[in-house]
Every structure is written in structure tokens, then in C-alpha cells.
Amino acid sequence: MSGEVLERNLEHLRAEFAHAETPDLPKHVRLRNAVLSAIRKGHFRPGDQLPPEQELSRAVGVSLGTVQRALTRLAADRALTREHGRGTFIARSELPVEELWQFRFVERLGEAPLPVSVEFVDRRLLRGPGPWADALGPDEKGYWELTRKLTVNGDFRCLSRLYARLGRFPKIMKLPQSKMTGNLKRVLADEFDVPTLSLDQFILPCVLDDDVCASLQIDRGSSGMVVNAIGRSIGQEIITFQSLFVPAGGYFLEISPSGNRAPGGRHERRSN
Q1: How far apart, in whole angstroms, are the C-alpha atoms of residue 212 and residue 264?
Q2: pLDDT band at 10 (very low <50, low <70, confident <90, very high)
Q3: pLDDT over threshold 80, residue 77
């Protein structure tokens, strides 16, 4: 790390620590929050190296033990990786972004995933309550909703709705439509330097809503399931909320653990 880069990084962290100072919070918590804030503002990208602990201690004006405690907590949160003899780095995803394409369908257990094509339907700005707001938290600028159809193996359709906070991704409504038909996690990583490091997924068997049935051109009142997925980034920040509406059908949906959160078991569930 060059002297110029080191000083610039230290200045970013000094400024964030000064802004984050709250009398009722311990210094190691304030330093942790300052590092996370610097990451979210784009001052550090995944894979970037943090300044050495002693330099950070002097720049911020806290003890070396306080720095080590803050960085240890950030490493436990999977926001940082610490490599002996090399230093401390902003975390990268432990899986290729393709592995975070969480909706994989197979015809038989153990077989390779079936091909999936994606069709753009709509994107719009939402204001007000909803499950997306419950998951993502409040945002005075509103929420971005992207609706797409997924066609599995050329003959089975699902509907996807993905949400993100507009205040977190202010330019997302201006991205070209061509970017909206691929892996959105790659778009967030490439365009905003916000990697998806893990996914939490929840399944609810249900009768599909009328508007979903109409969009998928299936009978009103059809049964199926909703798969809700919460995407997390550095420091366990929740960045996306996604609902996949899956009608009853003949394919298995593979639900796999992914990313930097503690993995659980693998489950296969048939949509019938």
C-alpha cells in the first residue's frame, strides 16, 4: 500500500470515526461502525486492504487493543478477512456470484440445473409499507421493485419480484433495461461495489395471488409457493428482498446454503 493510498484511507476512517462518535457507545463499537460506514460509502471495495492496526490506532486516537477488538468483531461478522503476515482486507464473497443464483430447478435429484431464461416485465418505485420495507428497513426515498418472469427449461414459468432501497442504490432506476435480465447480484456488485455475500431463504406454500396467476397465465386460485430471499452484504447489511412465486409443477427447486453465513443442510423441495 503506497503512502498516498494509506493516508487517504486513514483520512476516510478518521472522518467516519469522528462522525460516528456517540458518547454512550464504546470506542470499539464506534470504530466498527466507522469502518462499515466507509465501506458502504464506497471508500473501500471488496478485496481492499485496511491500514495496519498501529497506523489506524494513531490516526483515530484509540488504543491498539480497541482497534484489534473492533477488527476482530468485523471479521466475526464476515465484513473483513484477516490474513496472517499480510494484513486485513475487505471481505469478498466466498462463492462465485453465479452460485448465488439461488433459484435452481432440476428434473431429477442429483442432476444438473435446468436452463432458465429471464424476461423483463416492469420496474417501478414504491412508497409505503410492505414485506419489502419490513425486510429492508425504512427509506424516505422509497423502494425499487423489479418484476421478471423466469422460464425453466422452456416450459415452466415463475414470477420474480426483487426490491432494494432507493436511498442505498440511487442510480438503480436509471440502469438500462438490458442489465435487468441477468443476475442482479452481479449488477449490484459491478455497478455499486456492493457484493451479495449471503442469502436467507424462506418458503411459504400458498394459493397464488390473482395478479401472479394472471401474469403467469395460469388458473386463478392456483396453488404454489412463495420463496422469499434476503440478500446480505458486508457487515450483514440487508441489501435486497426477493419473492419468487412458483406454481405447482413437475420440477424440483433446489434450496442451497450460500455465502458467508453459517451453512445449514441442503434441502430439495418439489413444487407440487
Answers
A1: 31
A2: confident
A3: no
Q: What is the CB neighbour count within 10 angstroms for residue 143?
A: 22
Both 163 and 137 in one domain: the answer is yes
> What is the rounded average pLDDT for all residues in the chain?
83
Alpha-carbon gap, residue 232 to 60, rounded angstroms: 28
User: How many independent structural domains does the chain possess?
Assistant: 2
User: Which one has a higher pLDDT value, 199 or 217?
Assistant: 217
Q: Would you say residue 64 has pLDDT above 90?
A: yes
Question: How many whole angstroms separate alpha carbon 164 and alpha carbon 149?
Answer: 18
Grid cell digits, residue 265: 443442510
Contact 103, 227 (CB under 8 A): yes
Angle at 145 between CA 114 and CA 239, to 5 degrees: 80
Q: Which grid coordinates belong to 240?
A: 435486497
**pLDDT range class, residue 178, cuts 50, 70, 90:** confident
84 pLDDT higher than 60:
yes
Domain boundary among 90, 119, 153: 90
Do 84 and 197 share a domain, yes or no? no
